[in-house]
Design goal:
4-stranded antiparallel sheet, 29% strand, 298 residues, 5-stranded mixed sheet, alpha+beta
């Protein structure tokens, strides 16, 4: 009897260290809405911060297309109206008269039932939504090979695509740089074959490499040379396989269906670019905006 009691106690003790099923389920099923638009004023996220015995109310402005979790308390400025929605949901319009408003998912009726997979992509796109003032996070400054101080002198400032970029080969690739100078040469080498596949001299600060020169699934290195000083920079990039590019573009094209019908085209393009950025395709994200007539500084 004592042995059975000991075994039972040990079993209970071991179970106490296992994750709580209810906690795991709650985390997996956590739901969000987002701010579709705000007119006549702003909306704020209200939180309380405790410092010792004191409580402080914090107000943080909510940006357009920003995710807002269920249970969040919103404050809407006087005279303002905001529109909230979620993936595949109807739009909920609120004014300052509804403030403060606690986000409840039951207030948002589903117009469609998207799969959890596409909803995951939609959330990724919202988390990486490219606002008008957004900047590419992967953009870097590279030094010149053999010239450690060249970066400070401005050579090869802001190479684009950034070093180690992944790119989809769906249109000519634009190579850009911010170096001062009047004569440059660009060379691209195939790292697998170790041979040059493209070279061009230019007085501009960019070169468009046409389709057909580069191959999907290959890794390349590009070299930029200032013809006047002989200083040299380099960076690498890889082109995605065709099937991977096709998978990503299938997701990109499906995302607008989860937005309300009244959503403007620029918002749709910025959301799609956000998904590309979420996949680490920063070059393609900014090219997507440019291709669709949206000016974005980078």
């Amino acid at each position: 009897m004592r042995i059975l009691l000991l075994v039972f106690s040990a079993l209970c003790l071991s179970l106490s260290f296992l994750p709580s099923p209810s906690v795991a389920k709650e985390g997996e099923s956590e739901e969000y809405v987002y701010l579709l638009k705000s007119e006549g004023g702003k909306a704020y996220r209200i939180t309380e911060k405790s410092t010792g015995d004191k409580k402080e109310t914090l107000r943080k402005e909510i940006r357009r297309m920003e995710l807002i979790s269920a249970g969040t308390i919103l404050e809407i400025e006087k005279g303002a109206s905001v529109s909230l929605t979620c993936g595949g949901c109807r739009v909920l319009n609120l004014t300052h008269k509804d403030s403060p408003y606690g986000v409840r998912m039951e207030d948002f009726k589903k117009e469609s039932s998207p799969s959890s997979k596409i909803m995951g992509y939609f959330t990724m796109a919202l988390n990486n939504y490219i606002h008008p003032d957004s900047k590419p996070g992967s953009k870097v400054h590279l030094s010149t090979r053999g010239h450690p101080g060249a970066q400070q002198r401005g050579l090869c400032k802001d190479l684009w695509p950034a070093d180690n970029a992944d790119i989809m080969l769906i249109e000519p690739i634009t190579f850009k740089w911010g170096a001062k100078g009047n004569r440059f040469s660009l060379e691209i080498r195939d790292l697998q074959r170790n041979d040059s596949v493209y070279s061009e001299k230019t007085m501009l600060k960019k070169v468009d490499v046409p389709l057909g020169i580069l191959k999907p699934g290959r890794r390349y290195e590009w070299f930029l040379v200032d013809e006047e000083t002989g200083q040299r920079c380099r960076a690498t990039f890889a082109l995605l396989q065709k099937d991977e590019s096709s998978r990503i573009m299938e997701v990109v094209n499906s995302l607008p269906a989860l937005l309300p019908s009244e959503t403007d085209m620029e918002t749709k393009y910025r959301l799609q670019a956000g998904y590309l950025a979420s996949e680490g395709l920063h070059y393609d994200a900014w090219k997507w905006l440019e291709r669709n007539g949206i000016s974005q500084q980078y």
